[in-house]
């Protein structure tokens, strides 16, 4: 018998789980297939960007992620030393720059969280399984698929038995070596592997060696080892990332005993008690699929793109993909949108993947500037008087590494351009990698401002978004909200209006949301379910019902493309 669902997700890594969770929140019948019997054992990703935390906040899991991650803000710095008990070379203290911290706090209700992937995955799974329409199958493999005009039929293998699963759409979250991508004949433009590492996850009480210093990352360079010590929980769980050259030593030579010896040298103490949990050889490279899908199959996460982790954009971008695609699939499946809305997934996410590849490579080159100085001959003297020049050189290069740790602009500043956005002709206000310029230009992340609800609860304007279209207007004019109710019912689209102002359900705390969003009290902004601005109407329009109706029909691909472009142009000109 063939099983059925609306969307099948192959891959239960962080991106597949995020995809299933968001589809479930939107009521989509979803089956997730994962060949492993449990979560990833190795921590891999550790930094959860503020943008991802905003998504987690909408899903109600941000407090759990922060609590299970366990790292308090005083760890938010990165240091360069010869050994933990050796000489100090330089530090980037993310909290020292109070002006920048204040600014970052104004960007979002959330801030960077430090929580490793092996801790994130169970939280995502638990939340996904909480959704009535989500089924998660571990120990189950997708062994092949065929697609036709109606949907996709998967061959599912479990315990040496095969069954069929039919879905309307298939999401491939099956990782960097995506078999689904290969089966579709989609290639990837990929670099060669350019840096090799061994990541050792271990338990140890290191507090006595820190002597009151707290840093989430310790870059280590001495004649015995060059690597990075990364805290996972600010207490007893760590990664030591060892740089090695496969031409000189094989990854199999990094036995648990050899790793313990190396970690002790990184710390500078021969007796520290170390219990190894896992050892993962990996390399740096980047890759971008030539297409993000074919017909009814979509690639997300590492299946679509891969970056070096300098900047921490792998998992974070993949979760962004899932957030972008889920509402579009739900809208098409519910008959609220035309199927061509799905084309906007690649149109919107590919430029982000390209940006993240470019910036991850810039970050990598900056790290390599220090690496290049660490040739064995010079490192031999780094802890002696002779090494003073090298130590000064590293201290200078450390100053150049900041963008890798401050990426507010890269996380929040991108602006989607596609037919799922109704441009208003305003010029882009570009963010830089570190500096995010808040803008409510259509396509942008709807910017954060604090609000107070009538029951006294403090919440962010971004908390209003997440599962439907939301039209935000001032409390002084009811015509927009009446129009939204009427258009939502006429078109059968999941949409609502929210009014902000004194005497209403929400009022602003201090920052003027109207100024931030570029509106008069007679204007309105329409925000998509993924929290990006769909359309902005700075002032009153003569016919709000017609305006909203045309706008939603255009964004949801319910009109012929050429007509949509013409009316969208007319609406934005009005
Ligand atoms: C050492 C290291 C450090 C990293 N640091 C960071 C960081 O700080 N920040 C960051 O954002 N990213 C980081 N990354 C990258 C991050 O780990 C990946 O981007 C992320 O795991 C991608 O998630 P995914 O769900 O797309 O793929 P994966 O996590 O690879 O999951 C794919 C899943 O699909 C399953 N699967 C594959 N084929 C099938 C099949 N046919 N049937 C059933 N199941 C299948 C696999 O078993 C796997 O569980 C790091 C990676 C490494 C290796």
Question: How would you characterize this protein structure?
Answer:
The chain has 574 residues and is α+β, with helices and mostly antiparallel strands. It folds into 3 domains: 188 residues, FAD/NAD(P)-binding domain; 165 residues, D-Amino Acid Oxidase, Chain A, domain 2 (2-Layer Sandwich); 161 residues, Glutaredoxin (3-Layer(aba) Sandwich), CATH 3.40.30. Helix content is 33%, strand content 24%. The strands form 7 sheets. The chain has a 7-stranded mixed beta sheet, sandwiched between helices. The radius of gyration is 25 Å and the shape is globular. It starts with a strand and ends with a helix. Flavin-adenine dinucleotide binds next to α1, β9 and α9.
Summarize the structure in short.
By secondary structure, the chain is of the alpha+beta class. It has 17 helices and 29 strands.
């Amino acid at each position: 018998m063939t099983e059925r669902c609306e969307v099948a997700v192959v891959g239960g890594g962080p991106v597949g789980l995020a995809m299933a969770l968001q589809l479930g929140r939107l009521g989509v019948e979803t089956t997730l297939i994962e060949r492993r019997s449990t979560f990833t054992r190795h921590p891999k990703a550790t930094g959860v960007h503020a943008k991802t935390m905003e998504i987690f906040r909408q899903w109600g899991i941000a407090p759990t992620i922060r609590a299970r991650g366990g790292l308090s803000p005083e760890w938010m710095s990165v240091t360069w030393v010869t050994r933990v008990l050796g000489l100090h070379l330089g530090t980037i203290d993310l909290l020292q720059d109070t002006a920048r911290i204040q600014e970052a706090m104004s960007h979002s209700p959330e801030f960077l969280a430090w929580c490793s992937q092996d801790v994130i995955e169970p939280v995502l799974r638990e939340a996904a399984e909480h959704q009535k329409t989500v089924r998660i199958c571990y120990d189950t493999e997708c062994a092949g698929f065929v697609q036709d005009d109606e949907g996709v039929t998967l061959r599912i293998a479990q315990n040496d038995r095969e069954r069929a699963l039919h879905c309307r759409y298939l999401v491939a979250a099956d990782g960097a070596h995506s078999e689904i991508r290969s089966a579709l004949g989609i290639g990837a433009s990929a670099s060669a592997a350019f840096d090799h590492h061994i990541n050792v996850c271990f338990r140890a009480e290191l507090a006595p060696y820190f002597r009151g210093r707290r840093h989430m990352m310790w870059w280590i360079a001495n004649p015995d080892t060059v690597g990075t010590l990364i805290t996972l929980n600010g207490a007893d769980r760590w990664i030591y990332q060892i740089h090695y050259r496969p031409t000189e030593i094989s990854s199999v030579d990094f036995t648990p005993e050899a790793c313990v010896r190396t970690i002790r040298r990184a710390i500078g103490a021969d007796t520290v008690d170390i219990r190894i949990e896992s050892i993962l050889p990996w390399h740096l490279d980047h890759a971008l699929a030539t297409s993000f899908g074919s017909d009814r199959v979509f690639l997300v996460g590492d299946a679509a793109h891969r970056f070096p982790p300098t900047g921490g954009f792998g998992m974070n971008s993949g979760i962004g993909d899932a957030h972008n695609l889920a509402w579009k699939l739900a809208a098409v499946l519910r008959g609220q949108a035309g199927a061509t809305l799905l084309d906007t997934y690649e149109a919107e996410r590919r430029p982000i993947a390209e940006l993240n590849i470019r910036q991850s490579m810039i970050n990598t080159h900056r790290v390599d500037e220090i690496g290049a100085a660490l040739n064995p001959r010079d490192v031999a003297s780094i802890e002696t008087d002779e090494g003073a020049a090298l130590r000064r050189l590293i201290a200078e290069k450390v100053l150049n590494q900041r963008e890798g740790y401050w990426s507010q602009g890269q996380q929040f500043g991108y602006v989607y351009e596609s037919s799922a956005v109704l441009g208003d002709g305003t010029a882009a206000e570009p963010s830089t990698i570190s500096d995010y310029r808040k803008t409510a230009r259509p396509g942008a992340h709807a910017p954060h401002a604090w609000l107070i609800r009538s029951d006294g609860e403090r919440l962010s304007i971004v908390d209003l978004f997440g599962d439907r279209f939301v039209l935000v207007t001032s409390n002084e004019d009811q015509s927009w909200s009446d129009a939204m109710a009427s258009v939502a019912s006429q078109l059968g689209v999941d949409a609502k209006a929210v009014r902000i102002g004194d005497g209403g359900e929400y009022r602003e705390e201090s920052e003027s949301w109207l100024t931030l969003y570029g509106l008069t009290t007679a204007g309105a902004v329409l925000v998509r379910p993924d929290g990006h601005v769909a359309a902005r109407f700075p002032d009153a329009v003569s016919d709000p019902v017609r305006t909203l109706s045309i706008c939603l029909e255009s964004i949801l691909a319910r009109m012929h493309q050429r007509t949509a472009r013409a009316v969208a142009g007319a609406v934005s000109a009005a």
